[in-house]
Amino acid sequence: MVNEHADTRPITVGGWMLTLLVLAIPLVNLIMYLVWALSSSGNLNRRNFCRASIYWFLIILGIYVLILALVGVASVATSSM
Questions:
Q1: Residue ranges of the domains in the chain?
Q2: Per-residue pLDDT tens digits for 3-51
Q3: pTM (two decimals)
Q4: CA 75/CA 52 separation, integer angstroms
Q5: Which candidate, 49, 54, 45, places its Cα nearest to that of 6?
């Protein structure tokens, strides 16, 4: 599905610097990641960058939860012996 209203121009170096500065601010970054990732308008490159970042976060969070679950099961199994 192609959105003809999306901005497909490349983001300049200054634009990327501003984007990364905004994403370095706690709590503001969470809001802006969601705004830029879910926006149907705006720059396509920034939207894809934010979506990819969110996907990586979810993958790493899933691995972290899996490891914590395995460690928890292992600790319960060894403590009952």
A1: 13-79
A2: 667 789 999 999 999 999 999 999 999 999 999 999 988 999 999 999 9
A3: 0.82
A4: 35
A5: 45
